[in-house]
Write a structure and sequence with these properties.
With 703 residues, the protein is an alpha/beta fold. It has 24 helices and 25 strands.
C-alpha cells in the first residue's frame, strides 16, 4: 500500500499578468511535485483568496503536454515537424542565426520580443539586458496599459491611488470597466467585506452582464466606448444639484469653473443617448455617490481598450475629484500602484548601455513589422531574427493574419522559449522548453495592490527545462557580451542587489523571511491630500495630452500616436471609436474569460472544460433579425479577416453588441483563425496601444 506523500508548505507569488499578484501558499509533495495552491491568508490584500485557475496550478505544471526538450523545425514552418536537439546545440544555433542577421542587416535586424507571460522582474525583464548589450531593436510596450496609464497620469501626475484595501472601508464601491470576479478576484473580496460589514453598495459599470455585474446592487450596462459620456453626466449632475465639493475643487483642481461651463450641455439626457442607459439610472447613480462620501472608484483596464480609452480613463477619474471623495478613507479612486515600489531594474535590464539611437518597434504592430511595412520598421532594416519569451503573438496580438504571415517568412529565424506548443511556437524554427514560476527564483510587485512579493524556487524543474535567465546568460556568452555589467549574476544576486538598493538592507534573505514588503504610501500621499503630483499640486481637468511625461511614452523617434487632434480639452466623450455602420453593424468586444488569462490556461483540462468552446454572444433581437438561433455557426468579419464560431443567444449583451470571451488557441476555431484576426493594430491616441474591445464587424449565418 502506497503511503501518502508528506506535505510541506512553500510560499510564493502568482506570476501571471494580473494586477492582484496574489501571495501564495503552495503544497509541496516532494522536490518536483506540488499539490493545492492557496491564497496566503496572512497577506492582507490576497486575504486567503485566489482564482480557481491558479488554485489548480498542479494541473498546469504537471501537464502531459508540457514542453520538455528543445525542438528544431523539420519541414515547412507551421507543418508540425520537429526533431529533438540538445541545449548546447540549440543555443549555438540561436547565436549563429543572430550573428548572421546582424552581418546582413546590422544589429537592429534582431528583435527580442517579450511581454508579461511572467510578471517576475528577473525572468521577464532580463531579456532587455541582452537587447541593450547587443544593440538589438527596442520594443515599445503598447499592448496592455498605455491608454489606461496615460489617462490616469494626465490627471493625477502619478501612478498611485487610494489603498486598495480601503475598499473594505467604503460605503460605495464602484467597479468600473473590469470583470473582477473573473480577472481580479481580490477586488471582490474587499468589496464584499464592505457590503457585509458596512452595508456598502456595489456599483458595476460594464458593457455586458458578466459575473461581476450579477453581484452589483446597481448595474449599469452601457455601449462600448461610451464611459466618458457617463462620467460627464455624473459631474454635470454634481454641479447642477450642489453635490460638487466646491471647497475641494478650489483647493485641489486646476480649472473647476471651466469644467463646470464645459459640462453644462453634458446632461443625463445627452449621456443616455450616447451610452444607451436610462436617464433614471444615471440620476440614481449620481444621487448615490453624491450622498456617499466614502465612494471608492476601482477602475479597470477593460473600458480603456477603446480608441478613446485614455480620454475615458481621465473622464472617469475626474468624477471623484468633482465630488471630493478623495478626502475620505474608503473614498477616492484607484487604478494602479505602479509608482510606489521603488525598485530600480536598471541592473536587470542593462539600461546603462542602452543606446537611444537604436530604433524602437511597436509590439502591437508586430504584423506590420514582420511583413515589411516601412513606417512600422522606422524605415530601417527588416527583422531577420527573433527570440520570443513570455508571450504568444500569433494568438494574442491584433491583426492576426499579418502576424502569422510574418512569422511564417522563410527568411525570418524565430526561437520561441515556451512552456507549451502555442500558436507562436508552432511557427518557430526552434522551440526551447521554459520553467514555470515555482521552478525558479523571482520577485514580483502588484500594480493592483501594494506589496513586493518574493517568489523563490520551490521545486526542481524537469532536467531538460531551463529558465529565461539561463537563456539570456548563455546567449550573452556566445554573443560576446557576457562581460558587460549585470551578466554573470544569479537570479538571487539580482534580487538581492535591487532590494538592498531600494533600502531594504537585509535583501533577498530578509524578503524570504518576511515573504513580502508593504509599500503602500501614507494616507495623505495616497489620497493626494498633500497635492496631486504636478508642480502646482492640482488635479488636471485640462490635461496636456502630448507635451509632458507619461508612464509609457513612446520614444521621440516615434512621437505621439494616433489621432491626437481629436483629444478633448476637458473630460468628455471622444468620437474616436470604430463606429458601427451599414456594412459593419455590430460592435465586437473580446472580453476576458474566467478560466483563462490571456492565452495562458487555455491548455489545461480544468479551464477548458469549464469554458466549453469559443462562442459568440448576441442579443435575441439581433438574432431574430438575422434569422439565427442558439448553436448556429456564424461568420463575423471586417476588412481584417473573418472568424467562424458558434452562437449563444442571450440578453447578457445589449442589442448591436457582440461579445466573445477568452483568447482561445487559434486551432480551437473552426478555420484555425482566432478572435484577434478581427482586432485592429492602429495606434490609439496619444501614446499608442491596442484597442482590443473596439471593433466593428458584419455577421453572416450558415456553416
Amino acid at each position: 500500500m502506497n503511503k501518502p506523500l508528506p506535505v510541506t508548505m512553500g510560499h510564493s507569488a502568482c506570476p501571471h499578468d494580473c494586477p492582484s499578484t496574489c501571495a501564495l501558499d503552495v503544497e509541496l509533495l516532494d522536490g518536483r511535485t506540488i499539490g493545492r495552491v492557496r491564497g496566503a491568508a496572512a497577506n492582507d490584500y490576497t486575504a486567503g483568496v485566489i482564482c480557481a485557475k491558479v488554485a489548480r496550478y498542479a494541473e498546469r505544471i504537471h501537464h502531459k503536454d508540457r514542453l520538455l526538450k528543445p525542438l528544431q523545425r523539420v519541414g515547412a514552418k507551421g507543418e508540425g515537424g520537429w526533431r529533438e536537439i540538445g541545449w548546447d546545440d540549440a543555443l549555438d544555433l540561436v547565436a549563429e542565426e543572430f550573428l548572421k542577421a546582424e552581418a546582413r542587416h546590422g544589429s537592429e535586424a534582431v528583435w527580442p520580443y517579450q511581454y508579461a507571460g511572467t510578471m517576475g522582474l528577473v525572468q521577464r525583464d532580463g531579456i532587455h539586458r541582452l537587447r541593450h548589450a547587443k544593440r538589438y531593436s527596442g520594443q515599445f510596450d503598447t499592448i496592455c496599459t498605455n491608454m489606461a496609464w496615460t489617462g490616469w497620469f494626465v490627471g493625477a501626475g502619478a501612478m498611485r491611488g487610494a489603498d486598495p484595501r480601503e475598499m473594505a472601508k467604503s460605503d460605495c464601491v464602484i467597479i468600473w470597466g473590469t470583470n473582477a470576479v473573473a480577472t481580479q478576484v481580490n477586488v471582490m473580496t474587499h468589496a464584499a467585506k464592505a457590503r457585509k460589514e458596512r452595508g456598502a453598495k456595489i456599483v458595476v459599470i460594464d458593457i455586458y452582464d458578466n459575473a461581476t455585474m450579477k453581484q452589483a446592487d446597481l448595474a449599469l450596462k452601457l455601449r462600448p466606448g461610451t464611459d466618458g459620456a457617463l462620467a460627464c453626466a455624473l459631474m454635470h449632475i454634481a454641479f447642477r444639484d450642489g453635490t460638487a465639493d466646491r471647497g475641494y475643487l478650489a483647493r485641489y483642481t486646476d480649472d473647476p469653473a471651466g469644467l463646470e461651463a464645459h459640462l453644462a450641455t453634458r446632461t443625463p439626457q445627452w449621456a443616455a443617448a450616447i451610452t444607451g442607459l436610462d436617464v433614471e439610472a444615471i440620476e440614481a447613480f449620481a444621487a448615490l455617490i453624491g450622498r456617499t462620501q466614502r465612494s471608492y472608484f476601482r477602475l479597470g483596464y477593460g473600458f480603456t481598450r477603446q480608441r478613446n480609452g485614455a480620454v475615458a480613463m481621465h473622464a472617469v477619474m475626474s468624477v471623484p475629484a468633482v465630488y471630493g471623495h478623495w478626502q475620505h478613507e474608503g473614498g477616492g479612486a484607484f487604478h494602479s500602484n505602479s509608482d510606489i515600489f521603488g525598485l530600480d531594474k536598471s541592473e536587470i535590464m542593462g539600461t546603462a548601455y542602452r543606446d537611444p539611437s537604436i530604433r524602437t518597434l511597436d509590439q502591437s504592430r508586430i504584423g506590420a513589422v514582420l511583413t515589411g511595412d516601412a513606417e512600422a520598421l522606422c524605415d530601417g532594416p527588416p527583422v531577420a531574427a527573433m527570440l520570443i519569451q513570455n508571450t504568444n503573438p500569433a494568438n494574442v496580438c491584433p491583426e492576426q493574419r499579418p502576424v502569422r504571415r510574418g512569422l511564417a517568412r522563410d527568411d525570418l529565424f524565430t526561437c520561441v522559449h515556451e512552456q507549451f506548443m502555442t500558436d507562436t511556437a508552432g511557427l518557430a524554427d526552434l522551440v526551447l522548453p521554459a520553467t514555470m514560476f515555482l521552478e525558479h527564483d523571482d520577485i514580483y510587485r502588484g500594480g493592483g495592490q501594494n506589496h513586493i512579493v518574493l517568489g523563490p524556487k520551490l521545486v526542481e524543474p524537469p532536467e531538460t527545462v531551463r529558465t529565461n535567465h539561463f537563456v539570456f546568460e548563455e546567449l550573452a556568452r556566445r554573443l560576446g557580451v557576457a562581460d558587460r555589467p549585470g551578466f554573470g549574476l544569479t537570479e538571487r544576486d539580482l534580487i538581492d542587489n535591487m532590494v538592498k538598493k531600494a533600502g531594504h538592507t537585509e535583501g533577498y534573505e530578509g524578503l524570504k523571511r518576511d515573504r513580502w514588503i508593504d509599500c503602500q504610501p501614507p494616507f495623505e500621499e495616497a489620497h493626494f491630500l498633500n497635492g496631486f503630483a504636478w508642480p502646482d499640486g492640482k488635479f488636471r481637468f485640462k490635461p496636456d495630452w502630448t507635451g509632458g511625461y507619461a508612464p509609457n511614452r513612446p520614444p521621440d523617434s516615434l512621437g505621439p500616436q494616433g489621432p491626437v487632434a481629436g483629444l478633448p480639452v476637458f473630460p468628455d466623450h471622444a468620437e474616436l471609436i470604430e463606429a458601427a455602420d451599414a456594412s459593419h453593424p455590430y460592435r465586437l468586444a473580446t472580453s476576458p474569460a474566467r478560466q483563462f488569462l490571456n492565452s495562458t490556461f487555455a491548455e489545461t483540462t480544468g479551464s477548458r472544460s469549464r469554458e466549453g468552446a469559443p462562442e459568440l454572444m448576441i442579443h435575441p433581437e439581433d438574432a431574430a433579425r438575422e434569422g439565427l438561433v442558439a448553436g448556429d455557426i456564424v461568420t463575423i468579419g471586417n476588412e481584417r479577416g473573418e472568424v467562424r464560431l458558434s452562437l449563444t443567444v442571450t440578453e447578457t449583451v445589449k442589442p448591436g453588441v457582440l461579445v466573445h470571451e477568452g483568447i482561445w488557441a487559434n486551432t480551437d476555431f473552426l478555420d484555425g483563425e482566432g478572435i484577434n484576426t478581427l482586432t485592429g493594430a492602429d495606434p490609439v491616441a496619444p501614446f499608442g496601444g491596442a484597442a482590443f474591445h473596439d471593433n466593428c464587424v458584419w455577421l453572416r449565418g450558415g456553416a
